[in-house]
Amino acid sequence: MKITFLGTGTSQGIPMIACNCRVCTSKNPKNKRMRTSILVCKDGYNILIDATPEMRLQCINNNVTKLDAVLITHPHADHIFGLDDLRRFNIVQRMDMPIYGTTDTLDCIRSIFSYAFHNQTGGGYKPRLSLNTINGMITIGTVSIMPVEAMHGNGYVTGYRFDTFAYITDVSDIPASSLKKLQGLDVLVLGALRYVPHVKHFSIEQALNIVEQIRPQKTYFTHMCHDIEHEEANGRLPAGVEFAFDGLVIEV
Fold it and tell me: Which pLDDT tens digit goes with each residue over 15-73?
């Protein structure tokens, strides 16, 4: 199984608009972060997790030419506003794109992208999205995926486990029932926004506490804000934990 980090940044991306901090002005490409998303490639299937506003560029930069499904963690703008660009895959693959999410997530998608679900005459293209409500295990071809519920402030976010790999971003708490689903991992990808606590996201310290509870073989942090200078911050992490970066590819 191959995982490509298409984006590892917070909702505003890095560099942020009108910010002259040392990370936003850094020349190190590992400090340039598009909005958070990954591509999971397993058994010949390409599964995208979240469709960011930069999805088109992320696919071009990483030579993504086929998608079999899209899993959505939650319906915030930085995780769904790239859904319109799926129309290119509709055209190339001649198929509707399966989208998986909770009932609330899919309701938001129907509302925000209402034009995609209305019959319209005239020219032009619109995305063809086949919405699928998560109800237990997800099966895409030969790939089985376990949804893992977590908290994002007062709301919910869906993490996903593929065999011994799990991905949970935009998370502020993981209930005990979900922690049990995350045991025995080879690789965990976990949201860790910054050093200072945040009401809707794990801080670095909180994320490290979760790592201690789950004890995966390897952990990558994602969804970092501009407080995180890649090289400096990486050097402060314990063995087995690293900050991910855009374009990173790992095998599990």
Answer: 999 999 999 999 999 999 999 999 999 999 999 999 999 999 999 999 999 999 999 99
Q: CA torsion 12→18→24→25, rounded to 10°?
A: 160
Q: pTM value?
A: 0.96
Those residues whose C-beta lies under 8 Å from the C-beta of residue 210, and which sit 6 or more positions away, are 174, 179, 190, 202
Residue by residue, DSSP assigns 212-248 as HHH--SEEEEESB-TT--HHHHHTTSPTTEEE--TT-
When the pLDDT of each residue in the chain is averaged and rounded to a whole number, the result is 96
Phi, psi of 71 (to 5 degrees): -105, 130
- The residues near 168 (Cβ < 8 Å, ≥ 6 apart) are 148, 150, 157, 159, 160, 174, 182, 188, 189, 190, 191
Structure tokens of 218?
């390897």
List the Cα angle 76/49/67 in 5-degree steps.
Answer: 125
CA dihedral for 166, 169, 172, 177, sign (positive or negative): negative
| pLDDT reported for residue 118 | 84
How far from chain centre, in Å, is Cα 138? 17
Question: Per-residue b/e over 170-179, b at no fewer than 16 CB within 10 Å?
Answer: bbbebeeebe
> Regarding beta strands 37-42 and 218-222, do their DSSP bridges make them parallel or antiparallel, or are they unpaired?
unpaired
Name the amino acid, one letter, at 2. K
Given the DSSP bridges, would you call strands 37-42 and 165-168 parallel, antiparallel or unpaired? Answer: unpaired
Summarize pLDDT for 198-214 with one digit per residue, the tens.
999 999 999 999 999 99
Question: Could you tell me where the DSSP H helices lie in the chain?
Answer: 55-61, 77-80, 87-93, 103-112, 176-181, 204-214, 230-234
CB 144 within 8 A of CB 45: no
Query: Could you report the per-residue pLDDT of 139-165, keeping only the tens digit for each?
Result: 999 999 999 999 999 999 999 999 999
